[in-house]
Amino acid sequence: MLIKRPADILPSEITSKDNYLNRRDFIRAGSIAGGLAMAGPALSAVVPDQRRAKLADIRSSEFSTDETMNSYEDVTSYNNYWEFGAGKFDPAENSGDFDPLPWKITVDGHAEKTGTFDFDEFIKPYDLEERIYRMRCVEAWSMVIPWVGISLADIVKHYKPTSKAKYVAFQALHDPTRMPGQRNTRLLDWPYREGLTIAEATNPLAILAVGVYGEALPNPNGAPIRLVTPWKYGFKGIKGIVRMSFVEKKPHSSWQRAQPSEYGFYANVNPEVDHPRWSQATERRIGGSVFAPRIPTQMFNGYSEQVAHLYDGINLRRNY
Amino acid sequence: MDTVRQIRFIWKPIVFLLCLVPAVLVITDLNGITGTLGANPVEAMLDRFGNWAIRFIMIALAVTPLRKLTGWNWLARFRRMLGLFTFFYVLMHFLVWLMLDRGLYFSALDEVLPAVVEDLTERTFITLGFAALLLLTAMAITSTAGMRRRMGRSWQKLHYSAYAVGLLGVWHYWWQVKKGPDDAIYYAAIFAVLMGLRIFWYWQKRQKRLHKKSPA
Q1: Residue B131 half-sphere exposure toward CB, CA atoms < 13 A
Q2: What region does A203 belong to: left with phi over 0, alpha with psi -120 to 50, or beta?
Q3: Spatial separation of the C-alpha atoms in residues B193 and B203, rounded to whole Å
Q4: CA distance B17 to B27
Q5: Which DSSP category does A7 fall into?
Q6: Is B34 touching A (CB cutoff 8 A)?
Q7: What ipTM describes this predicted complex?
Q8: Is B125:B175 a contact under the CB 8 Å cutoff?
Q9: Over the stretch A21-32, which tens digit does the pLDDT of each residue have?
Q10: Contacts of A144 by beta carbon, 8 Å cutoff, 6+ apart
């Protein structure tokens, strides 16, 4: 019998008391909600217990921030995941019946290794790491989220892309029967698609997340696997990934296609380049009181040290 | 009790309290009594007051067409109250933005003002919303019977800006959403119908007048 060595205590396990109490209240609220079938947004955000599987052997990471994390409730109840509806509470309310597993991921394009893999098979070769990242949404709000994920650089290397591979393209699940938001074809050109340059994809900050708070990724966050690029606006973080392609040409990016004047391919967090309709200079950190002031947005969301060199010589005002 | 008194002492207080319910729910949701405003309460308050503001614009603009279509002339007695509630919800929407979102309530004026001025002048949808608030303020101040009497014909002219408020409200909503018109399209459709009826009736009246003038 294999006895697993207990992993070191992760920063996310040392939760502040406030958050801890919030979580307890939240879980309790969830069990009440189950009994009474109440449909308040916060209550229905509870992911059914059997899906809140603990992930084992998670390493901590030097890239994690020590800023106060958002509560599990905030992270799982306030989401942009239009596959389940365009409202912030829709993903939590409408994804309760969604069972992500079994899940297959296809790797194709200019790489030596390609194929279609079961989710477990896809993530097995790599170490799980906790990455506590700031997440800055293009809508000028932010959170601090303890992701559990795999280095995307390791994944890319594993498939041995050829010299023709200039970009990595991602595609999300397209299944309107299970994802009610996709029945509205006016929302976006489904399926959701995103892409990174090879240099971006192999930057050590980029991960494919499979969990939060040491547990399997909840549905509203993009179960079972989603992209996290903390120096970019949140919409780059494509959820529910089913395809990863190594391509030569700049790939399709859903929001860029939908509104090219407002959303770019790079989508790097940049306080100096405003969205045409609002300022990006400040952001509202979720979880504060209604009297908490907005905080200044940092260039590359505070990750300049790791990523600024990727954009040397690129006009970031034009390439937003 | 005659109808006028019945409206004044029974129905008006009831409608008044009903119109207050959405505002009360924002406060009780904020405090977790009736529900929750979720992870981003400032945004939720902005959205709630904003949504009710545009609903009240439509409700107030629906009074006259509905009165003409149904012949329920007593509806006109609620018009001023509904207009004032429109002003109230637009004002609350604006105050949440100014005091909580931009932070005037807890930050120094000179810290907040540049961003506020930038928003008001450079973000078209905010300029449009602010213009609607200014028009509504002028209408609210002049909404008393005394003011109406004193202003004479110019009162009606000023209060025609209700139509402009409707247009500005829909436009403001249309331009602020992340992508596409979203729900704004429904309000645009309602507004188009309410204005379309007015234009049709105006045209009909003019035709009649023309016919009367011409010697058959």
Answers
A1: 19
A2: beta
A3: 15
A4: 15
A5: P
A6: no
A7: 0.85
A8: yes
A9: 444 444 444 443
A10: A65, A67, A68, A69, A70, A132, A133, A134, A135, A285
